[in-house]
Design a protein that fits this description.
Blueprint (H helix, E strand, L loop, with lengths): L1 E7 L13 H7 L2 H7 L3 E7 L18 H18 L4 E6 L4 H16 L3 E6 L20 H5 L21 E6 L4 H10 L2 E4 H7 L1 H14 L3 E7 L21 H14 L2 E7 L10 H13 L13
Parallel strand pairs: 1-2, 1-3, 3-8, 4-5, 4-7, 5-6, 7-8
Helix pairs in contact: 3-4, 7-8, 8-9, 9-10
């Protein structure tokens, strides 16, 4: 497979500095080499640059770095659309506001191909605030609301060519939801698989159900992987740690199942803050998990026919 690595050093949407170093950490941890060793053609397309930010105003005075974030969304939307023409793009972040751009560009590409875009959101948070409802003002909390066409972004964020159907989104690992998001998610019809569901049913059946829907509709599948999907005990390099996340084996199982499905067409790796890491521990784990998604196995098991 042709894999395209694209740096997205966004940190304007987060509440603390450091995420802009994420792409460099993933490169240093050997992401390109790991994918090349699996037989993939790996092209590192470098790093997206943010265009000049234009003045913007909004009634919610809590919003932080609004002009800068909007500029990133525009640039990454164009980069995602272009990179998805031929190959599997991997966007190396960068905070999760980058997904407002990547998903918008990818949904435009899917529409052009006549296929629906599905979104698997691996995260502790649903990121379903609008510009009106966010109290922190940190715009890494709004990308899913934006790409699904929720109210409150018109005239500020770039117009969406192809909003993502909320019914084609599955969230895994959720364990920190604000009241405004809870109500909005229910109204929109997003499938939210929180950690209680995972504890009760296991992560495999929940993911399998979603993948069957993607396959049935011949969908393109974008995976947006936030470091805080993982338990902070194994992945400390994130500024939004929430206890009780996915374990090492649960995370690898998700990636192995995604590989087996053959449905993934693009990937975000977000919220990696190397400043908070321990000797590159989290960056190395993210590389290993990406390798699992792209075909690396702990143990090759023969396919059996009965």
């Amino acid at each position: 497979m042709r894999v395209k690595l694209i740096g997205a050093p966004v940190e304007d949407g987060a509440g603390r500095m450091g995420c802009e170093m994420g792409p460099s950490a993933l490169r240093t941890a050997g992401l390109a080499r790991a994918l090349g060793d699996l037989g993939h053609e790996v092209l590192d397309l470098g790093t997206v640059a943010r265009p000049p930010a234009m003045p913007l105003a909004h009634g919610n005075t809590a919003l932080k770095a609004l002009p800068e974030t909007v500029a990133w969304v525009e640039a990454l939307g164009a980069a995602a659309y272009e990179a998805s023409a031929d190959g599997l793009p991997i966007f190396m972040g960068g905070d999760h506001s980058l997904s407002a751009g990547t998903v918008a560009g990818l949904s435009r590409r899917a529409k052009e191909k006549g296929r629906p875009l599905f979104l698997l959101w691996l995260d502790a948070h649903p990121d379903f605030h609008t510009l009106e409802t966010t109290r922190s003002g940190n715009l890494h909390g709004v990308p899913v609301a934006y790409v699904t066409g929720q109210k409150g972004f018109s005239g500020v964020f770039p117009p969406l060519d192809a909003p993502v159907d909320p019914a084609r989104i599955a969230m895994l690992g959720i364990r920190s939801v604000d009241p405004a998001e809870r109500a909005a998610l229910s109204d929109a019809g997003v499938s939210v698989n929180d950690m209680r569901l995972i504890d009760e049913h296991g992560i495999a059946p929940l993911l399998r159900t979603f993948l069957k829907r993607v396959q049935a509709e011949n969908g393109m599948l974008h995976v947006s992987f936030d470091v805080d999907f993982l338990d902070p005990a194994i992945a400390p390099a994130v500024g939004t740690t929430v206890p009780g996340g996915a374990t090492f084996r649960e995370a690898h199982l998700v990636m192995e199942m995604l590989h087996d499905s053959g449905l993934v067409t693009s990937l975000d790796l977000v919220e990696l803050n190397p400043f908070l890491d321990e000797r590159g521990r989290t960056a190395t784990l993210m590389v290993d998990l990406t390798a699992s998604l792209m075909g690396r196995r702990v143990m090759d098991r023969p396919t059996r026919s009965f």
